[in-house]
């Protein structure tokens, strides 16, 4: 109940601190006989790892995943898959200056009050480094979903007020190629260039900026999600909000849907190629909490990174005023790395609900 | 795992269909010796019940709660509290015209595909009538939280594009009085009047409209919420997204925070009246997923009600095109009734996390 | 987490006190489209109800089950099935003499210390009356299992030191007929007569006596049960030990198996009628925590009922010595009524594991 | 839901196969600020490890535990504690002769049928090697319980039909010293010598034998355990039954209690040294599922180890008859090593229920 597990049938439990020996994850409930492609897992981790471009933190971690269990002769066995990611670049002394100070808008103060003790090095457990474990687990979930015909695509749709235009999402794998061709991970090349320039200027100013990530899931059968509390979008929302720095979630029409009339918002059922479809998709592929076979679409808002390269006022543990100076290696904007975390958490939710769905199907 | 339970230590399980014999809830994990004020529970239900004003559905349900267990001589005993709310106004024949048709943007199609069977009367289990059970359970949670000094306030902050100005939230009980003095349940009287006029015009047009609800929670001790997956705001988000018609959730700075710079977004720690506070509250009272003692603040977006009093194109179960006519009794705008549901779900999340917090405190 | 739920995918939550308004249960996770035979549910309750014979308590409760939700036109809909059993014979004044006394080997003392409050009437929540709710839920589980070819049979195999001989279990439904033809619910008629005489003499002496129940489950597919903590027999054991008065559980060779050598205990695999079987069944149908297709066999030990018709020394709430007199209406031996509770809990475990099994099967 | 987690608030998740890279465990929910004595964890593992005496398997594993997270400057931080135990002695070729044969009374057949794939080396996940991870986690739980005044003692009370006399349990730490002074781990020295001789003769005969372990828990506050399904003894029973080779569990009077009369079985409340006690303890320290402050007492029965050094008939994966020869390194009797596993699982149940208890206490 201490909250380090996620999912029910496809369940993960993560561990590890930013500057401890290792981080890692146990995946319990991956179906047997799934081909576990270690290169794929590593390529996913590489998309999240620090130091990958000039617009990310320069901390260097190779983030090499080691599978310790649950895979035999290249296939999942149905037993828990443990993945270990050793920490390498532990410049703990970088953090001695904040050992007894509360960094603004970080978790230092709340951890200290909650536990009476904290590993202050790099934020300890509160560091977004924990999300590498999620990405590794998400890669396993993606391999399972792929075997079931489900694909997931996310990209950076906004940095600050700079928003990408709506994409033609007909070909998700083509969009993925476009996204991976630029360091902003926006699938609109022109906007990507603007984003990179903006983030770079923010970085030079010693500041940070927020952004948004948009996600599309395709190939989900009709029927995933439970109607009351475990609505599919409620579990997706929780998954997104559990990612560091996320402050908002909306699906389908989202916040703008609250400004619409029912007569314009209702998605009319039509038949297309012998399939039941809806003419519009303000429902974001989910009705009554249950997938309806249309693309699942949602958006996630990230606040600006709290660590800035400027002096800030704050309090220390004794309660006295003090100044904290901007030091260390941090991201000016987190969304280009977070794209893969969003996809991972999405995959985990879908894998879990797919298994729940199968339990009741004959 | 079929998703009709919510919470861990303060856990509820709801049951019941719109036009069945009754709906109800079991609350498992209410601490013992809490005074259970039945009048308060009823007054909460009265705020949600249909037919309470001209801007709500005219369906008549008295929604009288019966406590069946778990209370002895006016106090909780630590055993499960079961609450029953009989259904009264079951005009099931109103629904015969939709028995085999899929209402647009309702759950008819997804239920039928998921289960192969559905109680089509009034949407069956997918009806928002289920939320009456949540309100009853939320009332119990509020009684517990009140005994711990925690208060919750929500109001309608927007109907369509009509937004209330930011409120001075110094005195929540005064705001509550203002809110309850108007049928829109907006704590700004001038905006409330505009909202009522807008909803009434929408109703007359046979249409519906969406809106937003803003919530403040005060008196939460520092330390509630678990740092990784069960972040306090992630559980609040899931709770909100589990409410019928909710399409978005944001806390603190929310979506607009994603447009800000770190240097303007960071909440500086200061000492005020011997307490650690933050100068601003873009964090919405939650840092690293854990309450920091400031007011918890979030906002929830509701789509327009799907049932409109107009003819709509759709498909029937056979897959043929058909027309569905606007009949029955429905809400032109759901937010004024949903305020109390938002408060109830908020109370349930807080009560659960308060118990989890206490488990680890000496 | 207050422990009133059981199961994961086929999950029940019970509520109610012995002398409150009603007891009941919510079944969440029953698959849709199962025919819900209300007569069958009632006939199961009738086998547990008090007052059914001279060797049971004379308390009169008709224990009529009312289905409030989750069933539409005779079939389960996949939504929660709520069942209510009103309490009728609430002679609460029978209990005023024990309001502040701790009955020996009852839960009065532990409840009072745990909660600081208790409904002392008839033991409140600690009463075995709660098991009627389990029997109703177990009836639903049995209907589901029957549709999957799984049958469950339990009978009284011992009262005190009086043990029934080993049964030929080839024909379980014939054994069921024999069992139901006598009030002891032992499937060996000669032993049944001796049991009835023994219990009757115990009753006349104002005393009580313990006993044992043996269970066989047939038709379980190979593969139910999870290998580590949720072993099938571990969940069966927990289910049995959760029944009031149960003090022991063993499966397969059980306690006597601990006195055997490996060379005599090992179950040799053989082929019979193109099926993999074992020559002996010391494994009780479960190997490595997973069903192997053989009959599942286990035994449950019940202590003597704590309420005796004799004066006993005890303490009151003030901590002073006092005497408690034997009054009220109670069972001299609980096992003949408990047979149906054992079957119900067995059905709930099997239904849950069958759904878990299906989640991972393609 | 794949069953590799145990506990709710003090929760563990284990991973690893007998001949994979490593086994390990994540402990989620250990309270913060507990001193984590690594030497103690190692000493516990040493009591379970193979090769420790002539009456255990000669497989050599040093079983060195590495703490990867959750501990900072010697104290628990409230975040997940991950412990890794690398596998060293992986003589996988020892197992090539059983790659396609089902060993009698092992989990080979059920795993293969359940998953369609298995790591056959040393039983893979079904190996009792997994219990080393439980012992490491149990050591953490013991450290927590010790800080709360709770102590746990188990010993071998029977090997085959050779039973130790009832012990005077006044001084548990003295009994622990006696137990650790002999390789049978029986706290009665004379019986211990007989057990050692018996096991040695069994070993020489290429056979195996079962046994029983008795456990006492002292210092448990009144009030642990939830009254209905999560009764304290039900969770202890599940914990014991989840240990490899356990076929039976009884607490307090156990199976023999089912042969007693209520008038002899009832535990009379008395006052002793200003404490409420019971004159006898047939209740085993638990009444109504809740601890009553007396010693908690239970007994666990282990079947004989399935691997014997003799040729046995069996089937192979193709379904053909074949012979399996007795090879490899195995225990003639598992109970002397299992004592520490029983204590570990007991500690995990108690730690979990202690936290659940605290959640509801003011």
UniProtKB/TrEMBL annotation, chains A, B, C, D:
GO annotation, biological process: amino acid biosynthetic process; aromatic amino acid family biosynthetic process; chorismate biosynthetic process
Binding annotation for FMN: 125-127, 244-245, 288, 303-307, 329
Subunit text: Homotetramer.
The name this protein goes by in its record: Chorismate synthase
Stated family: Belongs to the chorismate synthase family.
NCBIfam families: aroC, PRK05382.1
Cellular component per GO, a single term: cytosol
Co-factor binding details: Reduced FMN (FMNH(2)).
Signal peptide range: none
Cofactor: FMNH2
EC number per UniProt: 4.2.3.5
UniProt keywords, alphabetically: Amino-acid biosynthesis, Aromatic amino acid biosynthesis, FAD, Flavoprotein, FMN, Lyase, NADP
Reaction equation(s) it catalyzes: 5-O-(1-carboxyvinyl)-3-phosphoshikimate = chorismate + phosphate
PANTHER family: CHORISMATE SYNTHASE
UniProt source species: Sphingobacterium phlebotomi
Role, per record: This reaction introduces a second double bond into the aromatic ring system.
